[in-house]
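Protein Record: Sequence and Backbone Structure Tokens
======================================================
Tokens: labelled as protein backbone structure tokens, with as many entries as the chain has residues.
Question of interest: how does this chain fold, as expressed in backbone structure tokens?

___
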Amino acid sequence: MALKKEFQDKMHAYTWEEVFVGTAFKKCSEAKYGSETGTRWELPGLNDDVFFVSFDTDDKIYLFSKENDQVPYDAINKYELARNLKFDGNSRLADEFTSTGLPMVRTVLTDLREDYRTNLDSEYGHLPVKERKFFDPALYSAVEIDLRRREASLEAQRLFEKSKHQDDLKTPKGSSLADFLAKPLEPQRWVIEGILPVNGNCSVVAAMKTGKSTLVYNFIYALVLGKPFLDKFHTNPIEGRVGFVNFELTEEQCQDWFLASPIQPTDPVHVWNLRGEPNPFRTEESIAEFSQEVANEGIRVLILDPWSSLFVGDTNNNDEVKKFWLTLDAFKKSAGVKELIIPIHAGRDITKSRGASSLDDHPDSIIHLTRQSDGIRTLRATGRDVEVPEGELAFDRATLLLSYNGAVTPESKDERTAKMLRRMIEEKGKVSASDIYRYAGKGKTDVQAARDLLVKRGELIEEKIGSSKFYEVNPKYISSFLVSSREVPEIGMDSVSSAISREQESLSEEKGNLSGCRPCHQRDATQFVFLNMEIRVCQKCDFIHDVWAVESITLLEEEGDSL
């Protein structure tokens, strides 16, 4: 507003004739308006209903109606009139022109200035600015003025930063190693052994829908009840309460999780549900207010879920991320919080946090939660004196509690991959070696080890055709595979019943022989028992040839409703 007032004052130096020159407005007769004489300006042919009246002693022009030319119904200052008539309403152009102080009407000086500028450009225009400025006094002056402005801005910024920290305490002085080692300090202690150190910050890095919220509830359960975290890591009792700041779940979801978990309403937990609400870390004032609230609640461990909702700034800017971590440390100190736990969304590389690399520099421990291709969750932790190897997590859906089952060994990893691989090959049928790598979606080394394990145990049949290798599930293992919980619904009673009716008349004749598969004409078949039924299936196209009850068809039909 002050800047606009400056240009309004400068525009006062121009006459009304200068403002109107070059426009369609014409100067008409002078007339008395009250005790003063004013000049009338009209817009012939365009708007005969209104006209302007200006006064030499006034910086405003008044708009009158011809129906009532005694009382004006609007007043416009000289700057606004010039901006709209001369510069098409563009404030920047009006300001730049006004600041030059150049006349609005063409004069001899205008022509001389243009001639001077043309000659200057033709003679020195090809030179770079750093040389041309010495031949162009106006350019030299503009450069010097802008340079001083920039220097002033930098100095103002320096003084501003200094004023922000003028009340800070002095940086402590250093000491000799002997004095430092003689300082009476307690050895490093843990809130959760090997996971969360006292006064530490812990981040949980995981891709979306991996189980971050479940892990958060397991943190709260261990901390408030003193139970081993993940049924593995000893948790020391804490003095104070656990605070949970929820930015992600709805209130209904958050409540359902608490009601389903073993955490009781009387346990020392305080909850902030801030999804869709203002971020308490958005300004210095809001941080100070939230800090006081947290201190009043006696919070010892604070969980902020997730980082992306509380961080204010560019997530890819290392400097901004570092600065925010320091802000959180200052917040901890003022709020009396000892430990922070912050879930962080993983990036495209699920082993790393999304955003700036400095996001992983500050935490004392980093937990990596990963969902494997077969649905198994694994957890590992790294940090300062933190080294927990990757291990599988078991989940008790009834209590929402997780258990760490120890480090994943190469053998257990191969078994898990082998189980997934056999399931995939059964679904796809005979596949080539290259297709196995493509379908599995895992590292080539892991897939090869699991595939070789299945071949060695006889669960896969390896067939070499030309220079390629093909693999399919050994028929004698299909029975145990089909009766798994994933595959039972895919068979169903409808397909079994249709097979029974289709083949019932020929069971006695074909039970001992198979002259050839009707769809594919192959003679290879496999026979297995499933749900009190004996089933004969073509190995090539999976066509069901024979189905008969091991005991009786009647027994099968009676049990059908319960399947």
Notes: The chain has five domains: 2-105, 109-158, 194-408, 411-473, 488-562. The longest strand covers residues 386-396. DSSP finds 20 helices and 22 strands in the chain.
